[in-house]
Amino acid sequence: MNRLRAAWPSFPELFVGAPLWGVLMLISAISGLYLRNRLETSHALDLAILYFGGGLLSWPFNLLVGRYLALGHRVEARFAAFFLALTAGTVLMTAFLFAMDYRIFYSRWHAPFGSFIWMLQFIFTSVSAVYQFLVIGLGLFLPIGLVCLLATSLALAKRMR
Questions:
Q1: Is 82 in contact with 64 (CB distance < 8 Å)?
Q2: How far apart are CA 37 and CA 9, in angstroms?
């Protein structure tokens, strides 16, 4: 419990870092779309909101997990902890948001809420959406997202003692 308390981030780290990380992920997605097809998609705004939301909502968890894993280690291990936490947390949160959007779209054809069939449809629709995001959506984190990830992980590792 003391380790968790020691890893707990300050409010400025949470409330300043979250929108910054969200904006960095938004920039990453938009630049990835631009490099892919010159932003010629009708879903550019939706994707920008999705990646911003993924970065924004994942930041508090990423920061707490990264600090928890990094606590008491040398700078190299702290860098690895933040790199792992930021990568996994951001991808998972963005995939989750994509799956929920996907689920909302397909819900009009699904069985009534709470039924056994509805639960199966919810699970398989969500799993399909996460798979689709991992195959198609991960590329939008590159190349800018990787640079942001490396720089942020290094800054957080050096800042933490």
A1: no
A2: 39
Compute the distance between CA of residue 122 and CA of residue 116 in angstroms, rounded to an integer.
10
Residue owning tokens 């291990």? 77
Q: Fill in the amino acid letter for 107.
A: S
CB neighbours of residue 11 within 10 Å: 7
Other residues' Cβ atoms within 10 Å of the Cβ of residue 1: 5
pLDDT per residue as tens digits for the range 70-111: 998 999 999 999 999 999 999 999 999 999 999 999 888 889
Buried b (16+ CB within 10 A) or exposed e, 132-144: ebeeebeebbeeb
pLDDT tens, residue by residue, 21-37: 999 999 999 999 998 88
Nearest one of 61, 28, 60 to 47, comparing CA atoms: 28
Q: Is the peptide bond before 12 cis (omega within 30 degrees of 0)?
A: no
Task: Say which residues have a Cβ less than 8 Å from residue 111's Cβ, sequence separation at least 6.
Answer: 117, 118, 121
